Every structure is written in C-alpha cells, then in structure tokens.
Amino acid sequence: MKMISNRAAIIVRPKAPFIEWVRSAGGDSSQITAREIRDEPNVYLVQDSEMDSEKNQVIADNYTKIFEEELYGWITDEAAWPNNRDLKTFKQWFQVDFHTMVLDLGDEDYLVEE
After folding, report:
1. pTM for this one?
2. 6, 47, 87, 112: which has the fewest Cβ within 10 Å?
3. Greatest CA span in the chain, whole angstroms?
4. What is the domain partition of the chain in residue ranges?
5. Are 93 and 22 in contact (CB under 8 A)?
6. DSSP-derived secondary structure letter, 28
7. Which of the four pLDDT bands, split at 50, 70 and 90, describes residue 10?
8. Which residues sit opposite 9 in a β-bridge?
9. How far apart are CA 96 and CA 60, in angstroms?
C-alpha cells in the first residue's frame, strides 16, 4: 500500500437543488431517483491541505471546474445548464468533504487521461 502524500481527496455529493435540476432537465432524467443521483459521488484529487482556511481556498479556486464536471456528468448540453454557477450556488448544490489520507491499494502505476 502506498500513501499519496501530496494529494487530498474531495468527495462532492449532490444536494437537493442539484437533484431537482437533473430531474427537471427533461427526457429520461425525470425518472431518475435521488438515490441514483447520490449513489456514486465524484472524487477529485487536489493539493493536500490541512487547515480549514486552505480547504475553503481550494474550493474557491476549483469550484468552476468541479461544478461544470458535475453538470456535464448528467447533462452534456451546456445550453441546459443553469446560468448562475457562482460559488454561492455551488455550495447550495453540493456538499464537499475533504479527506487528507489518500491510500493507494493498487499495485500498478497510475494511468492519466486528459
């Protein structure tokens, strides 16, 4: 087992406003349950941060990329995305949990896709 010492993990969990947006997007999305939307939250690796103020800065620096990735994961048509995607809305739509202990149980080297 290897500890990844220069990264922290952010788990982004959708809250009710995001779930409502997904379900109101039309088509088959209205049949998706809240549980299906919440079941597999995305995990993002960021620079390791110990202090709460640094965690807030990490979110402030990265919320746009995370917000767009979360939206794109459900609706690829950017025209259907909400116009207001500021930090306040991000915090209303998502719960963010930090985990500073990132452990790799795999034996193989990482594969990086861009």
Report:
1. 0.86
2. 112
3. 45
4. 2-104
5. no
6. G
7. very high
8. 45, 99
9. 12
